[in-house]
Structure formats: C-alpha cells, structure tokens
Amino acid sequence: MKTGLYLHIPFCARKCPYCDFYSCGGNRDIQHRYIDRVLEEMSEAPIVEADSLYLGGGTPSLLLPEELARVTAACRERFALEGEVTLEANPGTVTPQALSKLREAGFNRISFGVQSFVSEELQYLGRLHSAKQAADAVLAAKAAGFDEISVDLMLGIPGQTKEGLEQSLAVLQTLPVTHLSAYLLKIEPGTPFDDPAIISLLPDEETTCALYLRTVEAAASMGLLQYEISNFARPGSESRHNLKYWQREPYLAFGPSAHGFLNGVRYTHKSDLTAYLAGDFGILCEDDHPNELEETLMLGLRLTKGLSFDALVNRFSLDGAAIDRLLRQLIQAGLMQPSAEGFGLTPQGFLVSNSILVEWLSLLLPQL
Ligand code: SF4
Known about the structure:
By secondary structure, the chain is of the alpha/beta class. The protein has 15 helices and 14 strands. It has 2 domains: about 5-245, Aldolase class I (TIM Barrel, Alpha-Beta Barrel); about 305-365, no CATH class. The strands form 3 sheets. The protein has a 9-stranded mixed beta sheet, sandwiched between helices. It has a 3-stranded antiparallel beta sheet with strand order 10-11-12, with no helix packed on it. The chain has a two-stranded antiparallel ribbon with strand order 13-14. Helix 11 (about 290-300) runs antiparallel to helix 15 and helix 13 (about 320-330) packs antiparallel against helix 15. The structure holds iron/sulfur cluster.
C-alpha cells in the first residue's frame, strides 16, 4: 500500500477568530527558510512510495509557487510521488499566473477555503476575501487547468439563516466544482469566538440540523454525492488523501503541528515554528498502540460506505448477536442503513454520530 504525505504550512495573513489551527505571520525570507527545513525533514524521513501529497495549513497559497514547486520536486525525488497533489488555497491569495505555475509544479487538485458566498457571513468569520473573489478564484483555477476543485463551506455561522445558505448553494451550483466540504462551525475554547456574545448569535440546533440536511440534498442535486460526514464529491473525485485518514492507511507528516500515522504508530510535531526553523522538528510519539477496533469504528462510521460488521466480528471475535440487536435498533430509528461495505450512518445519523459512536464503543470495547 502506498503512503500519503501531509505538509503543514503554518502561515496566515490574519488569524480568523474561530480558528485554532497552528499558524502565524511570516515574510518571504521566513517562508523560504521554512521550506529549506521541510526539505531537510523529508530527507531524513523513512523512504516510502507516495500516491498523495496534501499541503494544508495555515494558508499554503500564501507561499510563492516557486517555493511550493520545491516541495513537489522533493517529494517526487524522495518518495516517487505520483497521484493526487492538493493545495489548500484562500481566495484572494491566488492569481491566474500563480495558478498556472502551480499546475506546472504538479498540483492537480485545489481546495478553496471559501466558507460562504454571503458577504455578511464572510465578515462575521473575519475572512479577507469577498464572495466575488471566491467565485473568481474557482473559475481562474479551472481556466489554469485544475480539473479537481474543492470548496469548503461552513454551516452554523453566527447569524446564518436558511436563506443565507440558499444564497451560497446557488452560487456553488454555477461553479465547476468537483468536491465540497461542508463543516459545522465548532466553537474552539480560547478562540475569540469562544465568547457568550458570539455564541448567542449561533443558529439554534434545529436550524443547524436543517442547514446540514439541506446541504446534503443540494449537493446531491449538483452531482456531489456524500461520501463522508462532511464531504461530497462527483464519483471519482473523492479526496484520495483524506480517505487515507478515514481508512487507517499510512501517511507521513511534515511541519509544526502536523500529525502522521506510520506502521500503526500515531505521531505529531510540536507546534513551534521557531524551533522548527532552528532545525528541531519536534517529532513526538502520540500513540504507539492505538486501539484498532475503536479507531476502525470511529473512522469507518464517518464514511457513507460504512463498515462490514461481519469482518469486525471475525477480526476481533465479537458477539455477533449483540451487534445485530444494536444494528436493528439504529436502523429502525432511521440512523443507520445498509451500505456498500455493510452498514453506515444515514444523514440523520451523521447529525448524532458522536452518541451513536458511544453506543457502539460501550457495546464492543468491553468484549475485547
Ligand atoms: S485562513 Fe484558515 S488556517 Fe488561517 S486562520 Fe483562517 S481558518 Fe485558520
């Protein structure tokens, strides 16, 4: 099995008030030195064959295409990289010329952090781009030769209404998008959004559920089929890299705060750019014995293709009759359904996926 590669680019033009990803400011000199260090870390990593590279952040598109081209070249040389090569980009940070250079550098998939096509919602989120810039960026990427284009939308934005979501979906429908990620806003402790005044503006639970279910329905009508709790794609345009996360496949990670998974061990990097620039990559073992059953359930239930419970019974010697009973209950409640691999959550099930996971874990973990 080939391996994925993840590179964290820890630079942002400005911190968004809801975000707790590791990122900071940085000028061209720091960015150049950062890529020097990344290439050094790559040169010391285990030699694997890679079939995906994902540059996330932060805002990878803040870097010059020439810097990003150094990364793709190094990955081809060190990891025989072939396959899906994704760049996360913010609208407003890409020009037609830069997009063409990125295609030449080997990027074949671009994921835009749009979040909304409604100006007031973008302002609430503290985003630097306008709705028009977002739509223009998608069209420019298509014109530059990107066939795989993903857009992120956020649901449950302070003040968001069903009409606001319809406005975003109406714009999305006009764009050459092959993939959609639709995330529910989560209030992260310690961020500026972790404030009673902001929290009081969040849509109530009923509205948030309606926003999610409407997105599932609208995406399907655009040919973007749900394949994960928050992800939708044209058939064949699913993110191969992200599928590795949910299918417990290996991926190497590079850069401060980046998480990797290799030979059954989960590891991470310290969130410390200064140390990283000084040559301390800060690699820490996160968990060298992750519970395989727990992870398989937690990750597999995120996917619409679901899980083969028969395979779980055989692999972990579980009580098949108890599993059948819980499955029947969840199917009757409309929360699970037969799926490609066995059984998976319905869209209504995804809305309460955490409590369903707890039910499964409470039933199965004591059987190990
Ligand atoms: S641009 Fe993205 S990574 Fe950067 S602060 Fe905003 S949400 Fe976070």
